[in-house]
Design goal:
The chain has 792 residues and is mainly beta. The chain has a domain of 552 residues: TonB-dependent receptor, beta-barrel domain (Maltoporin, Chain A, Beta Barrel), CATH 2.40.170.20. Helices cover 7% and strands 53% of the residues. The protein has a 22-stranded antiparallel beta barrel. A 5-stranded mixed beta sheet has the order 8-13-14-11-12. The longest helix has 14 residues. The two termini are 47 Å apart.
Length: 792
């Protein structure tokens, strides 16, 4: 069946090959409204998705075009997008002038500009068009579309981003310019962000530690909302989605506009809701995997001449069921679950979310002001306040079943002050920031000892970042110093102890870009950063219900005093990444190689199995060793004609425990994906695109040895990393989609239908923490409708 399907695709490809000559050309320059050339602006031919970046002199070229008319979309950070229609051929060079964006969210884009437009950073972007095909998916799952980005799963609904093998507190997430502060230490604690707020999401895979410190040791995820536009008319967008596998419904709505009496003011409100029941594999129901989520955000902004401000609020609320079969009663049940092909607990489909489950609420308030100071630069002052409340419910007896087994409240305050400057070929930033966090457990509500202790954290940092352009070179350098004071409140033998930590840590990077030709670019970045261990890595103790496992911190080793942290060391990362980019005509290529040497690397390793009064669970212990992570990412897009586009993306990661010459657990396996899309336009339907993608995930051959049933006296358990089940086999999936747009007066109605796992393959994902108990979900249809009536 698969062969017939692939033969059909090849035949369809040959039938769509064009007969007209492809010898038309567009050549032009992109300038600002002040007459300055804009390097690395994005120029895209909308109906073919051909994309180029402008050279240092703002120039761009499209060659070998076939069509008689094209629509070009030009975008650049800090400027309003512009779309123009051109009749071909054009005999002269065209000039396109971008207007500086009149919006209150410049602060987000200014910060993103340092990442995206920096010489040394390797990044990838999910555009508005990309996100439209992912509506309804959580943030972590959406980011898997980017090479080098994986997800650490906990069942079918929880996805935690992994960049080059690193995750949790090593990944910085910027939510509308504010660093997201939640309980990100947990391997099943996904970012509390609604992807519907974003017009684009950018992932920076370089060592961008200069602006943000140790939280960005693995990379940065930038969630950018669309720019506010003070218009007289009200605009907006509505999205509706239906998902077949768990019978989920999704709705999102956004409206925005200006305020007539105050023409420099603008506003936006946005909300979303989704509800789904149990997911299912090709063979059985995954009981208690439902999800319910509702979110809201609002923004009010002002901009006039050289100053402006913004107030932004958001609320994220979700309830997620945890696979019931992941909680077992005794050692025999656990062993039977791991070796069995089916979970021990299977019930009929339901929308009910029962224990074990998670309830998460996240609230954010942002206040920002800026002033453009002549001959000095732009001064930005920003405050972000966040409250994150996480409740995890276990299966408990009697009335205790309604009480959470874990109840955490994290209140954080962040103040950032930055000065961005630019003069000629020289630009840069200098800034300071302060963070105050307070994390508290509600043990009276739970009635049990908390998984992580209460703590207060005070941190501050200062950074400087400079960039210089000359000839074909762009050079960058930056450095940052941070101080952190940590006060922990924990118990030992029922005695309250208050150990204190004082950390001093540094970050720095050097980068260079060589623009070999207008279409070829070489980027090299070297970064150094240090990271102090998180409270969870130090003092975790107990059952983590979301992962159905017991976790123990570094300070709980036998023979170690809980207040003596002399043996705990800071992580030290030394990363170098080199990237080769080619962007011209009908071919774009991005190929990266990276090497990350991490001293005192902290990770969770399987330790034993343990019987508790709530069941039998695998036990994991935090460990600190020297490690190396090295690999490569590749993405390629080749446009055969205006109708056919081929895409390739892949990633490979090699990880090693250098101290013990051993493998590391939960390292993403190699992946490669081939895809082809066909653009079949007609007079009534716009941008009719049919796509087929074939992602293949290899078996993780560098997985820890399997030791189960567990023999604690074996040499493997004593000296090496091990696992409770073997790495699953590799698997090939077939995904297909069709989408098109229908003009409705001056607005647009977009329709899309996608199918994942077309042939209903049975497989397990190595990066799923619950792969011990069940298969991945089966065939899944997603229907999406979007109505856009934006006024810009």
């Amino acid at each position: 069946m698969k062969r017939l399907f692939l033969i059909f695709i090849l035949i369809l490809s040959s039938d769509l090959l064009p007969g007209q000559p492809c010898n038309k050309r567009i050549e032009g320059e992109i300038l600002s409204d002040e007459g300055k050339f804009l390097p690395q602006a994005t120029v895209k031919i909308v109906n073919t998705e051909q994309t180029v970046l402008t050279a240092d002199d703002g120039s761009f070229i499209f060659d070998h075009l076939c069509q008689d008319r094209v629509q070009i979309l030009v975008s650049y950070v800090g400027f309003s997008n512009i779309t123009i229609t051109l009749d071909l051929p054009i005999k002269r060079k065209i000039n396109i002038i971008l207007q500086r964006a009149q919006k209150v969210l410049d602060d987000v884009i200014v910060e993103g500009e340092q990442l995206r437009r920096g010489a040394s950073q390797t990044s990838a972007i999910l555009s508005r068009e990309d996100l439209a095909g992912l509506h309804g998916k959580p943030l972590g799952e959406s980011l898997k579309e980017i090479p080098g980005v994986n997800a650490l799963q906990t069942g079918p609904a929880i996805f935690k981003p992994v960049i080059h093998g690193l995750h949790s507190q090593r990944i910085m997430v910027l939510n509308n310019g504010i660093r997201q502060e939640g309980q990100q230490w947990g391997v099943e604690h996904a970012p509390e962000i609604d992807p519907f707020i974003a017009s684009e999401i950018e992932v920076v895979k370089g060592s961008e530690t200069v602006r943000y410190g140790s939280d960005a040791i693995g990379g940065v995820i930038i969630v950018n909302p669309p720019a506010l536009h003070p218009t007289e008319k009200i605009g907006g967008e509505f999205n509706v989605g239906l998902v077949s596998n768990n019978r989920m419904g999704v709705f999102s709505g956004m409206m925005e506009g200006g305020i007539k009496p105050w023409r420099h003011c603008s506003w936006r409100v946005q909300g979303s809701f989704k509800k789904g029941g149990d997911y299912h594999t090709p063979d059985y129901n995954l009981s208690n995997t439902g999800i319910e989520e509702y979110n809201f955000s609002a923004a009010l902004g002002f901009e006039h001449d050289h100053h402006g401000g913004e107030i932004y609020i958001s609320s994220f609320n979700t309830a997620i069921g945890i696979l019931r079969a992941a909680h077992t009663g005794n050692n025999e049940d656990l062993q039977r679950s791991i070796v069995s092909e089916r979970p021990w607990y299977i019930k009929d489909f339901t929308y009910d979310i029962n224990n074990p489950r998670q309830n998460i609420r996240h609230y954010l308030v942002k206040v920002k002001a800026y002033e453009q100071i002549r001959n000095l630069g732009r001064l930005n002052i920003q405050y972000g306040g966040q409250f994150n409340q996480r409740e995890e419910f276990d299966i408990r007896r009697g009335d205790n079943n309604t009480r959470p087994a874990l109840s955490l409240g994290l209140f954080s305050n962040v103040v950032d002050v930055t000065l961005d400057h630019e003069k000629g070929h020289h630009s840069g930033s200098i800034g300071i920031n302060g963070t105050l966090k307070s994390n508290k457990n509600d043990t009276q509500e739970t009635g049990i000892v908390a998984l992580i202790p209460d703590y207060n954290q005070l941190a501050s940092g200062i950074f400087v970042f400079e960039k210089l352009k000359f000839n074909k070179w762009v050079l960058e350098a930056g450095g940052r110093y941070d101080y952190q004071h940590l006060l922990v409140k924990t118990f030992q033998n029922r005695t309250l102890l208050k150990p204190e930590f004082n950390f001093h840590y540094f970050s720095g990077n050097l980068g260079a870009t060589y623009n070999w030709t207008p279409s070829w670019r070489i980027i090299v970045n070297a970064g150094y950063s240090t990271r102090p261990p998180h409270v969870s890595e130090l003092y975790s103790e107990g059952l983590h219900h979301g992962t159905a496992s017991i976790e123990e911190g570094l300070m709980l080793k036998e023979g170690v005093k809980i207040t003596d942290h002399s043996h705990v060391k800071e992580e030290i990362s030394k990363k170098i990444i080199g990237t080769l980019q080619h962007t011209k005509e009908n071919l774009s290529l991005d190929f990266s190689l990276y090497y990350n040497d991490i001293d005192n690397y902290v990770y969770l390793r399987p330790y034993e199995t343990r019987l508790t009064n709530r069941g039998n669970f695998p036990a994991f212990q935090y460990r600190q060793n020297n490690a190396v992570l090295t690999g490569s990412d590749v993405s390629l897009k080749y446009t055969f004609s205006e109708k056919i586009t081929y895409k390739l993306k892949g990633s490979y990661l090699y990880a090693k425990d250098r101290d013990n010459d051993d493998v590391l657990p939960f390292i993403p396996p190699a992946q490669i994906e081939n895809g082809v899309s066909f653009n079949v336009n007609s007079n009534r339907i716009k941008d009719l695109i049919i796509s087929v993608n074939l992602p293949y995930t290899f078996k993780q051959i560098r997985a820890p040895k399997v030791v189960y049933p567990l023999d604690l006296d074996s040499e493997t358990v004593q000296g090496k990393n091990f696992d409770f089940a073997p790495a699953p086999a590799g698997y090939l999936l077939v995904n297909a989609s069709v989408s098109f747009k229908i003009p409705v007066k001056e607005n647009t109605l977009t329709f899309s239908l996608s199918t994942e796992n077309v042939f209903n393959e049975v497989y397990r994902n190595y990066m799923n923490r619950l792969r011990y108990y069940s298969d991945e979900i089966g065939r899944n249809f997603s229907l999406r409708l979007s109505y856009n009536f934006l006024q810009h």
